[in-house]
Amino acid sequence: MPSLGADMEHGKVVEWLVKPGDYVHRGDLIAEVDTEKTVMEVESFEEGIVAEFLVDLGETVPVGTPIARITGTPADGALVPPKAAPGATPAVQPPLESVGHATPPIRHLAHELGVEIEHLHGTGRQGAITRADVEAAAERSAAPAPPAATPPAAPTPTPTPTPTMGRVRSSPRARRLAAKLGVDLAGVRGTGPGNAVTEADLRAEALAAPLSASVPERGAAPPSDTAAPTAETATATEAAERIAKLRRAVGELMARSKREVPHYYLSTTIDLGAAMAWMQRINSERPIATRLVPAALLLAAAAKAAKEVPDINGFFIDGVFKPSPAVHLGVAVALRGGGIVAPALHDADTLALDQLMERLRDLTVRARAGHLQRAEMADPTITVTNLGDLGVETVFGVIYPPQVALVGFGRVVSQPRAIDGLIGVRPTVTATLSADHRASDGLRGSLFLARIDELLQKPEKL
Amino acid sequence: MNEHEARAAVLAAIHEVAPDVNTERLDANSRLRQDLELDSLDFLRLLENLAQSTGVSTPEEDYADLTSVQRLIHYIAAHS
């Protein structure tokens, strides 16, 4: 069960998109997963044959639980660890039985990522350890998730030495404390005798968890989650329950953000005269289906500016800010009936405006229909909220951890402005930035907003 | 297209974009933005659906007048 966002704790498979015996490539969609927020399509992290499903449809399991077994070749053993017993530690380590061989470049990569190569199960020729194996292990060691290949464009979470996990040793006292702190023992690396989890480990974990994308917070979900019915018939009760869950998930993430992230806030008013005139001219020549909306221009400008000011684009994980080379622009989409999701427009800075508009429309429709894909929920490196569409002039957002910035655009309003010594009425928008002071300071934030302003003055180049 | 047909087309288009809205009981004075909570992308989809079903292609300069369900029905009836 992959993590589909920093705030995801559990998920359930509501539909399999493959069947045992199917051959799947990395990236093929294999299942639809219901999180507390939405239903998403999840891709395979491995190539091979689907041997068996390890969870039942509708069964709610913690993030990190293996959901299917994929075998590489008929001769190859299990690539995914066996299913954890109910209530037990989700197995997150690959089998240790096979000591594979690796080429020097791979060993070098493993060293860089802090992966212990002798603990890896190779999936290459004759059990050779491949680049993908090492990257997947690095991802696993940072996250209690199933074998997951890091998308090349996304930043790799800070690697930590591979912990020896499997069965978690802990005292009853530590377990009580874990429950109190809402920490899942399965996600904690023990430093006590025999790698036992100590109270100190738990307290550290409770403090660190809110900052880490890969360690979901636990313990907040009620027991009823584990007995949730299948999502086939969305009755009114279920819809209400879904909204309540989404509200809670959003609330937890935002509380964590406000608790842990030292926000600073900036605001500027941008003259959209040039942008709106250009857009209206373009739209007047187009059928409705390919027309632009102001939001598309604003998002394009924000994405391009984020590429140029890397201090506000990336993840703050384990006490370190890692700028992201790619700009995956999270777009806050209000769901009808309540709640919000912020899936990513991948590589938004590289998209032509028309392409961005098309993707935006597609993403919004799918977000509302509950057909988002895993990577779209997990990847945003910076998020934009465009509340202006529904009325307000200014929005100061709350950062989605582990991201470090949130950009807000208000309503496009006509305002008197002084231009070349004369007063004129111009369309304007208030752009705001909420940013993490651990990753940047006001100067860089100002540069970012100023850059958005500049870009919007030349809309034809967006 | 008469007012009655235009109304049916508008309600069908709203249902496409906002399936949670009960179009059978919808008050025609409902405002698209404030009451039905349609954002600019929803509004664009609404007009696109109407263009397909009624053939009315709404130029952007007319957007500002189309604030309520009733106004949209009038507009479609008048321009089809």
From TrEMBL, chain A:
Q: Provide the family line.
A: Belongs to the 2-oxoacid dehydrogenase family.
Q: Where is this region: Disordered?
A: 80-102, 134-171, 213-232
Q: Which CDD domains does the UniProt record give?
A: lipoyl_domain
EC top class named in words: transferase
Alphabetical keyword list: Acyltransferase, Lipoyl, Pyruvate, Transferase
Which cofactor(s) are needed, names only?
A: (R)-lipoate
Q: Which organism is it from?
A: Mycetocola miduiensis
Domain of life the protein comes from: Bacteria
- Report the GO terms under cellular component: cytoplasm
Presence of the UniProt keyword Nucleus in the record: no
Where along the chain is composition biased (Low complexity)? 220-232
GO terms for MF? acetyltransferase activity; lipoic acid binding
Q: Which EC number(s) are documented for this chain?
A: 2.3.1.-
Spell out the Pro residues composition-biased ranges: 144-162
InterPro entries xrefs: 2-oxoacid_DH_actylTfrase, 2-oxoacid_DH_E2_comp, Biotin_lipoyl, CAT-like_dom_sf, E3-bd_dom_sf, PSBD, Single_hybrid_motif
Among Gene3D superfamilies, the record links this protein to: 2.40.50.100, Chloramphenicol acetyltransferase-like domain, E3-binding domain
Q: Where is the Peripheral subunit-binding (PSBD) domain?
A: 101-138, 169-206
Recorded hits in Pfam families, A to Z, give:
2-oxoacid_dh, Biotin_lipoyl, E3_binding
- The residue ranges of the Lipoyl-binding domain are 1-71
What is the name listed in the Swiss-Prot or TrEMBL entry for this protein? Dihydrolipoamide acetyltransferase component of pyruvate dehydrogenase complex
Automatic annotation (TrEMBL), chain B:
Carrier domain location, by residue?
A: 1-80
Q: Name one Pfam family in it.
A: PP-binding
The cross-references to InterPro entries, in alphabetical order and at most eight, read: ACP-like_sf, PP-bd_ACP
**The organism's place on the tree of life at top rank:** Bacteria
Protein known as: Acyl carrier protein
User: Which organism does this record belong to?
Assistant: Mycetocola miduiensis
